Amino acid sequence: xxxxxxxxxxxxxxxxxxxxxxxxxxxxxxxxxxxxxxxxxxxxxxxxxxxxxxxxxxxxxxxxxxxxxxxxxxxxxxxxxxxxxxxxxxxxxxxxxxxxxxxxxxxxxxxxxxxxxxxxxxxxxxxxxxxxxxxxxxxxxxxxxxxxxxxxxxxxxxxxxxxxxxxxxxxxxxxxxxxxxxxxxxxxxxxxxxxxxxxxxxxxxxxxxxxxxxxxxxxxxxxxxxxxxxxxxxxxxxxxxxxxxxxxxxxxxxxxxxxxxxxxxxxxxxxxxxxxxxxxxxxxxxxxxxxxxxxxxxxxxxxxxxxxxxxxxxxxxxxxxxxxxxxxxxxxxxxxxxxxxxxxxxxxxxxxxxxxxxxxxxxxxxxxxxxxxxxxxxxxxxxxxxxxxxxxxxxxx
Length: 397
Known about the structure:
By secondary structure, the chain is of the alpha/beta class. It has helices at 3-9, 25-35, 57-60, 74-85, 96-101, 106-112, 137-143, 165-187, 199-202, 206-215, 251-261, 274-279, 281-292, 297-306, 317-321, 324-328, 370-377, 382-390, and strands spanning 16-19, 39-44, 64-69, 89-92, 117-120, 191-194, 232-236, 243-247, 311-313, 332-335, 343-346, 394-395. The protein has a seven-stranded mixed β-sheet, with helices on both faces. A three-stranded antiparallel β-sheet has the order 7-8-9, covered by helices on one side. It has a two-stranded antiparallel sheet with strand order 10-11. The longest helix has 23 residues, at 165-187. The protein starts with a helix and ends with a strand.
């Protein structure tokens, strides 16, 4: 493949993925692969609506074809297995028993395609006492201990607000799929991959697990404060719910901030080290809060950065959409569909090797591409498609 073709087709343009996933983790993984040129065929149950007026599915299901298949009908299951025979990857995130009950586990898929890579993303894994429990990102992150690290000393633990288990699992899935495809290319074998939604975020807090194993100490909840940096936190700025995050990570940065603040209440902390600042943390935070309270968050974030002090606005969704840096870099993707007028969505955080945005397509509705997929990929005749339609095995949108 030439460099020009790589740019126009995307670096994953020779990969076909059958996407059985729902909600966030799995659809995010396949959306990323679709952005980079993989052919994603979303397998939808015709009884379950997919598109909604809020356009959420254009975030997670863009750049995907869609076929509506009833996997619980034998002829529908046969269609799916025919697709498996001509695909590289199958990914699903049902409870473990679902694929077994449909007789579509890895052993069955290998009969149709010995080189298939199958990814299962159950909430708690395929085995163990929690295996059949239902799970969402919020419960997965709780089991992984993430909320136990967030909050204030006199309050309950706080969830992240983004169902952390979902995006982390989705990103893990992309990495593991590409590794499995590389292994297949070298050794000519397929692979089964299991990604537990609850295990993915757990692997991101290893330092806390290691710390407890070494010391037996559970870290206390302390809001936005940091045990080695001071000041460190979010501070109210001018306007309605506008904030700036500031992190002073060493003595040099503290001296810069001290010179900016010019407040007699902290005069004794000129040239202080972290131990002294932590002892006077409440006072420092009070001074910083007063200094930021009547200032524009974006302006002082830029000012502090220019002075070598890590700082950034705490952006709302509206502010992100209007962020000059993100817009100059072309981060966002504007699209419309039958369900909504033009809306702006997040693009790709990793530029390069993806399909040009001009060729990105909005989410397809259930069965919208069924006929094309059956004709062009499987070679089904019109008579065969009509038979499947009458059996309700395949939905044609």
